[in-house]
Design a protein that fits this description.
CATH superfamily: Haem-degrading domain
Structural class: alpha+beta
Shape: globular
Oligomer: single chain
Largest sheet: 4 strands, antiparallel
CATH architecture: 2-Layer Sandwich
Number of strands: 4
Number of domains: 1
Length: about 140
């Protein structure tokens, strides 16, 4: 019987540490959220001096990435190109920075970043994804 890969707490911490390193390198203050494959919060951290609104936004981005199994940038691009239906979909966050986390082609969780401009959130998220992929 094949077993489904899972995102462990250690994985989540490694992803968050890589995202934090990218944010710190650029001097960006952000919130970093990692959720499991059901969209439930597994790990959260934020810069001590970032706005508190970034916390829920990061969690929502991570949740949306798992729920729709695609980066939140897909919805951002769709809205920017006039596909406003994305604004009516439940749980959609049309801003870069939410990405699914996959192991062996299976979505095992999501990463959400919030606190700077959308493309910067996406850059930070990419660093987190790379950390998961480079170790497993």
């Amino acid at each position: 019987m094949d077993s489904k890969p899972i995102l462990t707490l250690d994985d989540a911490k490694r992803v968050a540490a890589a995202a934090e390193a990218e944010a710190a390198y650029n001097g960006w203050r952000v919130a970093i959220a990692v959720v499991d494959d059901g969209g439930h919060l597994l790990y959260l951290q934020r810069s001590h001096d970032t706005q508190f609104g970034t916390i829920e936004t990061a969690i929502c981005k991570a949740h949306a990435a798992v729920a729709f199994q695609r980066p939140t940038k897909v919805s951002e691009d769709a809205v920017l190109s006039g596909r406003l239906i994305h604004l009516a979909l439940p749980g959609v966050i049309p801003a870069d920075g939410g990405v699914p986390l996959t192991l062996n082609g299976v979505v095992v969780g999501g990463l959400g970043i919030s606190g700077v401009r959308s493309f910067q959130d996406g850059q930070i998220a990419a660093a987190g994804v790379a950390a998961l992929l480079n170790v497993t």
